[in-house]
Every structure is written in C-alpha cells, then in structure tokens.
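Internal tracking record. Fields below are filled automatically when a chain is submitted to the structure queue. Please do not edit lines marked as system-generated. If the sequence contains nonstandard residues, flag them in the REMARKS field before resubmitting.
Queue: standard
Priority: normal
Entity type: single polypeptide chain
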Amino acid sequence: MSVTVGQKAPNFELPDQDKKMVNLESLKGKNVILLFFPAAFTSTCTKEMCQTRDELSYFNGMNAEVFGISVDMPFTLAKYKADNQLNFPLLSDFNKEAITAYGCKYDTWIAGLKGVAKRSSFVIDKEGVIRFAQILEVAGDYPDFDGIKKTLEGLK
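SYSTEM-GENERATED OUTPUT FOLLOWS
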C-alpha cells in the first residue's frame, strides 16, 4: 500500500533514539517532515541526515518538525545521531509498521536484507494531510529537498 498526496497521513507511534515514544497524531498543529532512510552509517543516508541537520533552522522557521526514520534499533540511532551531531529526532521503525503503512519498504535490499526503508520523504500539514510524497526506488538517489521546501512555502 502506498500513500498519496491529499490523503490523511497514517498514524504511527515509534520510539526515538532515547526510547521516548513519538505519536504522529500528537503533532497536529505543526507541519511534519518524515525522512525515511535505509540504514544508519551508510554514505547517502549520512549525507541526507547531515544536510537536514544543517538546514534545520529553515524547517523550524516553517513550523515544521523533522524526523528521520529507519528500521535501525534505537541504540544504533542514538550512536548515529551523536556521531553526526544531528539536531532532530531519529525514530526506530524496527517492527516495520510505518514503512509498511507509507508504502516505502524494500521487499529485498542489498545482501538479501528484507524490510528496509526505501529513501522516502513526506510533508504532512498541520491537519495531518500528506502534501508532498516521494518514494525513491534506488537507495543511492537523493531526496528532492527543493520540492520539500516549496511544499512548506505553500503551507505558510
């Protein structure tokens, strides 16, 4: 199942890198950016998360909460966040519920790994409606940050 622009975003409750639970519905009233990535400590994922870190003040200025999401365990995400000085929460979808609900799960990834997140980005408005959706089939492809920013500008 895949989500589309204009539909209500599927709710989820996932632990962050500190094992604190984050529920999407509790964020209503703010724009939300979800950045699904395949795996911590890989090159393209690190580039993406570090760009997000470097541009976080822009996203915050657009009344947006940003979350990186992978199937890595919270302990791995805590180390990854610390090593890269990331300034936004990383959520663990270890049970693969969010990547399934958002339609961004590889059936088989490199080395036969199953159930890893496809690099995907979603912008959800203050009412919980998806306003931008991009699911990339190739893990080395890079998210459309310009499209994310343009969508946020339109939500002002």
